[in-house]
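dumping this here so i dont lose it again. seq + smiles for fe (ii) ion
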Amino acid sequence: MTRPFPNDPMLQDNFAPVMGECDAPDLVVIEGELPEGLSGSLYRNGPNPMFPPLGHQHHWFLGEGMIHAIHVENGKAAYTNRWVHTDQYKVQRAAGERLCSTSFEDEGAPRNDIRNVANTNIVHHGGKLLALDEGSLPVVMDARTLETRGSTDFGGKYVGPFTAHPKLDPRTGEMLAFGYMADGPGTAALSYSVIDAKGALTRHDRFEAPYASMVHDFITTDEHVIFPVFPATIDVERILNGGPTIAWDPKVGTRIGIMRRDAGVESIRWFEGEACYVYHPMNAHTVHVDGRTRVIADVMKYPRVPLFPNADGSPAGRSLFDETALLVRWTFDLDDNTSSYREEPLSDLGGEFPRLDERFAGLANRRGFYAANRRPPSAANNSFDTLVDIDLATGQRHEWEPGEGRFVMEPVFVPRHEKAAEGNGWLVSLVYDRSRNLSDFVVLDTDDIARGPVARVELPNRVPFGFHGNWRNN
Ligand SMILES: [Fe+2]
């Protein structure tokens, strides 16, 4: 028997882990009907710490990953959840106690050498379902049972950490990826890799970023790769002097590297901007106007990295909502000889988890989706309360608020059919209902999400607030 989890907001309420793995074969559709054309699985990943933290410090990002799958077919839905059974999971389960730290500051944990939380994203590519964090290799899971098959290094060819946010090219079927601290802890090295549609590694390069930092995501277009480097710095000297491992250090500014996909890493051009932080871009595309090439990137921008301390060690807030991210558009003129770029606002409603109709990933897209805060979060254990569908050309938004005490997760778009117009389909997400202490799988019609769910399916347990999910058609 393990001890109780401490009274930390990131371990309480719906941030607390669920302690069981289960299969629920036939879920109750408590509202509406599952659309006939909706056939596939929503996979979601998030931290679900298997034991309490070692010391008093716990970071939301470092709990062991649990996958939740909702399989939908013929108007019926089934649910399965499993921890990702990494070596970290297996060794700790066998020992019956925590051996890997859930803090970025080393607490002398005995087995940090096997750390792989696999808790951030779950992506299907090359015939494999991959659970991802940003410091390890991808972990292959069974797409139906969620049984863990083990880590993959793409046939022995991939070395170093692999991002939780690879990009799937809808035209070529390639998966484009990067890794940070690619030459080991504290290094500024980034890797850039391409995995072809069949899952074979075809490119695996390394280069130096302007400084070492936590690089959570990147963006690709049909022609370019964009490597954003923000001042959530990892400074070895600071760490050796007892300072924080990852910290906000605005004096180094924002640096954005842009490379043609058909060029070498030595050709990366670095743009410079004011200090800010972006966990998640929505999309980017390349345009050619009057003989000039521009890269346009839409990103969810925070004025400062949430959840990490200042470089002098002074603490940050413990909630994601201490800072507000706004959707902005960045324009990079590749034929201009300055290193600056232009910014314009796209929405005045703050949020996170920006997504799109993935058939337009890397191409010009008009519709975007995200989770927002319509009501200012009143408590550290609250989360996003509104789903947003935005027309990026007009700024017009359609929104759905599930109501008091209910919180939404990242929205995932599913096209109505293969040839449906951009954004025509369903938005699927999970909603936590505090009054029932349960989560629901919801399906919204993107004709007008404000009408509320066309189907709401009760899950057998709550799904803790987590990170990312993706849909895979049957
Ligand atoms: Fe993320």
